[in-house]
Amino acid sequence: MAAKSSIKRLPKALLQRLDALIAADELTLDDLTAWLDDKGHRRSRSALGRYAKDIRKVAGEIERSTQIAQAVVAELGPAAAEGKTGRLLVSILQKLIFDHLMARIDGGEGFAADEFYKLTRAVRELFMGLGLDAEREARLKRDTAAKAAKVATAAGRKAGLSAETIAAIERDVLGIAA
Fold it and tell me: Which end of the chain is more exposed for a tag (fewer CB within 10 A), N or C?
């Protein structure tokens, strides 16, 4: 088994900052080496170069997985990313795409194209079902409000309330515009 990279043995906070600097791609390898030296953690330029290459590859794949997930969401429709469930499904989809791309980088197979197609279809059907549930819920709310308005109107008339008072109750309490 190969020894752990000298870069990966850096303190966690320093390694996270290094990862961010590498991903930002604003500093040269020499700048990064000097930055580590200034922090009191001298590392070889070649070790840093190998590590930076891997980080940049991962950063590129994250960007690519984001683009693929956005394309899939565009296919699913604009409502796909709305609501907690939608955002969760988009995150899961993005993670699956990222895992696939990383498996490909590591020489593995990842998902087959037909598996992506099946996944996209399943997510699309799920969103369509969620949309139907939302429509049903909105219809139930409208129906309930209409029934409440009828009951309120009848009760108000029976109690001798004026038409203006009944309209105010419907508007202010039940949220029904006259």
Answer: N
